[in-house]
Design brief:
44% helix; three-stranded parallel sheet; 471 residues; three-stranded antiparallel sheet
């Protein structure tokens, strides 16, 4: 029995996007589910569009998401001799031919097709007029003018295309580099790829690939085309609507595990109620028959939900480490217990890790606020001052190792729960400068993790008193 082998074959024309990561994931899952091999092939034959750092980004991203490849990376630019040999085979068989037409002639043909509102198809001039010469040439595929090309897709079923609708596309450029439609066929055969899993946008090119396989006398691999990614308006996903580099999502504070879980559902459905999957569970559940034909909607709110779920699952010590770069400042000199306490306070409210910075600025910077914010109901200025002074006294009395519950008990034992609003509102505003924030006892407990925590708290309460004196 032939071993399953798949490939992820991105072009290094930019950093890896969400759509590319989904293709890599589905290839990886299928390989692992079937004890097969997953290889990385870099299709770097379009040197004019190649982006510096793109290859490194692709490799790093796959490692970040634990999509380990068994072979590669293999670079097409290092296989030019192989393509030259195979293009000559096609020319000898009449399945390809040299085309010496100038750019100007091709542009004129395209203009005529546009005026007639017809898709451009090369007119086979150089095939019909042998003996053409020129300084440079491309090699074109010789598409049969009659007949139908048929192939079966694992998702979309049998697909038939009339050959007369296909163009004699370029297989080899003037610089000797192959185009995708040629190189991927040669490589997939020579590398023994059994299943070609790629995006739906390649369905239209597949008949040309099938004709090349037939010209070489090779068996076809299984084709698996994944549904398009759509935005909420059911338009093709664009950079503006979410199809951006995976790096950007990581920088925004999305967790790799959450992103992976989310994109697994973009075109695949486990056919049960389970939504949270580890990578191992995805491998176990993955089945090509569960891939949908309909376009997959990229819903950022759903991604946010996944991310929040994963944040809740992370131990607080690990979560504090992950949150560190997102505080918006260098927190390396702060005690770990202090940072962990801050993250613990915000954990249940977090959707993405970048939110931690904006929500917790008051832990690092003295808050700024209008004096009026200290006001609780109809309290007088003197009542407000007395409330803040009581808080000063109680904070001084509570031991530094006190937990939130002990701090709360000390306050409520002193003033009684019925009056808690008159004490807690001014206290919370003085500590945070915010109209809405976590409870003051959680905040005090966090500051107690600092050796000068009490001094910081007392200074903020004193600032509140000074604000009230100025009223």
């Amino acid at each position: 029995m032939t071993q399953v082998k798949v490939r992820f074959a991105p072009s290094p024309t930019g950093f890896l996007h969400i759509g590319g990561l989904r293709t890599a994931l589905f290839n990886f899952l299928f390989a692992r589910k079937n004890q097969g091999k997953f290889m990385l092939r870099i299709e770097d034959t379009d040197k004019a569009r190649e982006v510096d750092g793109a290859v490194e980004n692709i490799e790093t991203t796959l490692k970040t998401f634990a999509l380990r490849y068994d072979e590669g990376p293999v670079f097409q630019s290092q296989r030019l001799q192989i393509y030259q040999e195979h293009i000559q085979i096609l020319i000898d068989k009449g399945a390809a031919y040299r085309c010496y037409c100038t750019n100007e002639r091709i542009a004129e043909l395209k203009k005529q097709a546009e005026l007639l509102k017809q898709p451009f198809r090369y007119d086979k001039y150089c095939l019909k007029n042998p003996g053409q010469t020129g300084k440079s040439y491309v090699v074109r595929q010789n598409i049969p003018e009659e007949g139908i090309t048929v192939f079966t897709d694992e998702v979309y079923g049998e697909i038939k295309v009339e050959n007369r609708l296909l163009d004699d596309g370029v297989l080899m450029k003037t610089d000797g580099y192959p185009v995708y439609n040629f190189a991927n066929v040669v490589d997939d055969h020579l590398m023994r790829i059994t299943h070609v899993i790629r995006g739906e946008e390649f369905i239209s090119s597949t008949p040309k690939h099938v004709l090349l396989y037939e010209a070489f006398g090779w068996n076809l691999p299984q084709f698996v085309h994944l549904p398009l990614l759509l935005d909420n308006k059911r338009q093709k996903l664009s950079k503006r609507s979410g199809d951006v580099a995976v790096n950007e999502y990581l920088e925004k504070g999305y967790l790799p595990e959450a992103i992976l879980n989310f994109i697994a559902f973009l075109g695949w459905n486990p056919k049960n109620e389970q939504e949270i999957f580890s990578l191992e569970e995805l491998i176990e559940a993955f089945d090509l028959k569960k891939i949908n034909k309909a376009g997959a909607v990229f819903d950022v709110e759903k991604l946010n939900w996944f991310n929040a779920q994963y944040i809740q699952k992370i131990p607080i010590t690990k979560l504090a480490e992950l949150a560190g770069p997102h505080f918006g400042r260098d927190v390396s000199n702060y005690p770990k217990m202090f940072l962990q306490q801050i993250v613990q306070i915000e954990k249940e409210r977090l959707t993405v890790l970048t939110e931690i910075g904006e929500r917790t600025m008051y832990f690092f910077d003295n808050p700024e606020y209008e004096t009026a914010l200290l006001q609780w109901k109809q309290m007088t200025e003197e009542e407000l001052k007395r409330s803040v002074q009581i808080s000063q006294k109680l904070i001084e009395q509570v031991p530094l190792d006190a937990q939130k519950e002990q701090i709360q008990a000390a306050f409520f034992d002193s003033i009684g729960e019925k009056d808690k609003g008159s004490l807690l509102w001014p206290l919370r505003v003085a500590l945070t400068g915010l109209k809405a924030s976590p409870g003051p006892f959680e905040i005090i407990e966090a500051f107690f993790k600092l050796t000068d925590g009490k001094q910081i708290l007392q200074k903020r309460l004193q600032t509140a008193l000074e604000k009230l004196d100025q009223v």
